[in-house]
Structures are given as structure tokens and as C-alpha cells.
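Homework help board

Subject: predicted structure for assignment chain

Our instructor gave us this sequence and asked us to write out the predicted structure in C-alpha cell form, then describe one feature. I got the C-alpha cells but I'm not sure how to describe them. Can anyone check?
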Amino acid sequence: MVGLERRMLLQPKGDAQLQSSKSDGSGIMNRRSFISSAGVLLASSSLHAAMPFQAKKGSPLPAQPAGKADHTLRIDSCSLEIGPGVTVETIGYNGKVPGPLLRLREGVPVTIDVTNASDDPDIVHWHGLAIDSLNDGAMEEGSPMISAGSTHRYTFTPKPAGTRWYHTHAAAYDNLKLGTYSGQFGFLLIEGKDQPAHYDQEINLAIHHWEPSFVPMVETMREESSNVPLTTGSDVGYKYATINAHMLGAGEPIRVKQGERVLMRLLNASATENVVLALPGHTFMVMATDGNPVPNPKKVEVLSLAVAERVDAIVEMNSPGVWVLGSTLEKAREMGLGIVVEYAGKTGTPVWKDPAPVDWDYTQFASSAAPTQTADETFILTFRDNGPKRDAKFDTWTINNKSWPEIEPLMVQQGKRYRLVFRNGSGDQHPIHLHRHTFEVTQIGKKQMSGLMKDVINVMPLDTVQVDFVANNPGDTLMHCHQQLHMDYGFMQLIKYSG
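My C-alpha cell output:
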């Protein structure tokens, strides 16, 4: 019954000791060892050569990169007033959350300087870009961590065009102030030649959950959590939620005029929570998912966004009034997950109406035809929960019964097409992200499809999803569940190019 309920509600989920030479077999230190101590910088010669100087309190800062960068980001602590009398202390970019909007041109090289003014090593991942491993921003691929007090320059040529985003890729484990639990995220828009559709106004909306804490996964929590996991043990719960920097009712509303076409770019920047959104009296014409145009644009009343997913949708403003754009779960709206949409000349209490429950179906935006190309090789990957290890508060996750970093990489050859069969053998949902590549979703359950290009796909409990990707970007490539809780506890694997 619980599994049925989670589908009908459209709610897809969103050891401390230093191991001085622990690696994944490729000379790259695993994230658990690194986060344990800043001194681990010297543990791997391959990392030592790539990483900036490790500054100590009171010591001179290292030399800055030569020349002026095109953009600059500063990782630092900040206070964020998300609602009347509600302030959260977090880490953000340039003192605000979300971080600054970065608009880049497809194919035009860019330099971005990131200064780490926080107390912990950190790193920035440029999510959805087909760039090199060194600049991608994942330690597991060999990207350098930015030590406290250091500045690191990222240099890359952004592609493909579309709605991307940037965020920290640091581990958190049981420190719920780090990683994507913090406010380190922002929109990264790569502008190409084509526009998704005609529109009069564009609005970027990023969803995030705040003040995480450890909670037992008991029946009462299942009612409160939008993820409704089926497993036992500890999980992460939240006190507040925001769209951009404010809770529902705080901050400025989205102001529109009757007859306008508004392009909404929506991003789920939560660490672990998937969301479902609606705007009563309106529909969303889905034009792109994860920044990639869909083969079959379609109007829907509700949007489902797993952790790290993006949706570009056109909303025609043809229902004058004052409305709530927010979560379909009442408890989530009470936490703040929503924003007011106000038509010109209209006042009053914002209105919410529950939409009819429906299944979220990726296939509605794709072609129903089978893929025209066949895969050169298939990898079958089964995900399971293996229970807590040692003194960990959370369960360990496995891919084919192995966890990061004790898991062999998938080996691919440049130019070949590969099929990844994701088999979810657990009772939780998993938004699977593939770095540095875009994949085509080819089958969900028994439904074949083609043309839907993404970099994150949510795999429902006990379901199977197939995706194809072309090995066209040589270099180490990370694949993982984008829930911070899952990736920290083993749910990662590298893809390596041979030769």
C-alpha cells in the first residue's frame, strides 16, 4: 500500500578514522578519508600534485591565479532570513542563496575563480556540462579539492546549451551542515542559438530544504517525509523549505500579467528530498528536462522533480488571481515549500487547490518508438541497501553488492554506445546522475521510449530503468545517486575509458 501511495501522490524521493592511503584503486582518494582530515592532502601523490596549497590559520594565503577571471565565487558562511523570525546559518556562494546566476555562451571558453573562505575543503561541480574530468568538480574523478583559504581556477568550454546548475560536491556524512545540506548551489544557464519557445518573462526557481536533523524512520516520519522510504533505521528530516531564498508567504511574489507566457526554470537543489509541485488554475507546458529539449512537449498540472532534476516549462497566465505555486503535500507547504503568484491588479489571500493525484510518467515527454540505435554493450546494475556499517548512523548502499570505494569501475571504449540497466532492489527512490555525459532514457519498466535526454533519472522502488549513453568524452566519469545521504554511504561508481 505504501508503494502504491508514493506513486499516486507523485512523490519520487528525493568510518570516521583516517585511512591515510585508502583509494579506489586508481590513485584517487575516497571522499570519506578526505573529509576526515585536511592533512590527508599528503596521502596520495596524484592528489598532492593536483591540489592547491593547504592553508593554516594565520598563515599567508597562497598566490592567486594570474589574470582576472570571467567570474568569481566565494564559498563562505552566511545568514539567511527565510521567513519572519526564521534565520538559518549556512554556507553559500557570494553571501547569498541561491548563488549568483551564471550565464555562459555555449562553446565560448570561460574561467571561474572559486575562493574557499570556509573552514573545510570544498569543491564546485558544474552539473550537466560535457567538460573534462579535472574541471568537472568531482574528487572521485581527480578534480582537486579547494583547501580552506585557497583560490582555485576552473577553466572549461561550456556545452551543451540548456539549464544546468553548479553546487558543492563535498562529502557530508553525519555533519549535516556540509555538502548539499548547505546553501551551495546556483543556476548555470548555457545559452545557445535556439530558444525553447516564445515567452514574455523568465523566472528561475530553486527548491531547498533547511535545518536537517537525524530522525528515526518510523511510521510517523513516513507520513511527514515526501520520500516515504520503506527502509528502517535513521534518515534525515527537515524543519523548513524554500523556493529561492524564502518560505511560502515571505519575500516578493512572482508578479505576472494576464496573457503573459512565463518561462519557469525549476531546480530541485535539495540534499535528499524529491518534490511535486502544482500551480492551481494553470498548467505547465514542459519544454525541457535537465536542460535538454523534450521530443514531445506536453501540458501537465503537476511537476515531479527528484533531487538535482530541472524542468523548463512555459506557463500561460490565463487565470487571474493570487495563487500558491507549491508542493502538493500540505505539510511541505507548511514548512514553506511554495511561492505566491500574483496577477497585476489582484489582491487577497493566496489560493491553493489540490490537484487530482496522477502518476508521474517520464514517457509522456518522449517518443514511444524504441531507440533507433542498439547498444554495443550492456551493464546491469542492481542497487540495494546493505544496512549500517560499523558505527555509522545510516545504511550503506551497494551497486551489484559493492560500495564505493571498494567497487570496480565500468570500462568503456571511446565512440561506443552503452546501455545502463538500473535495477532498484530497494524500497527507496534513487535519482541517478551521470557526470560529463547526457544519456537517452530508453525504457522504464516495460515501456520502451526514445529521445528523452537527461543527466538525472529517478528510479522508483523495485523498478527498472534503462538508459543509453555514448562514450564521447574521455576521462574518469562518476555515476551516483544524487541523494547526499546515499552517495556519502557508498552509492557511487566510476566509469573509465580504456586505452
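Reply (TA_rk): Your C-alpha cells look well-formed. For the description, you could write something like this. The first strand starts at residue 71 and ends at 83. That's the kind of observation they're looking for.
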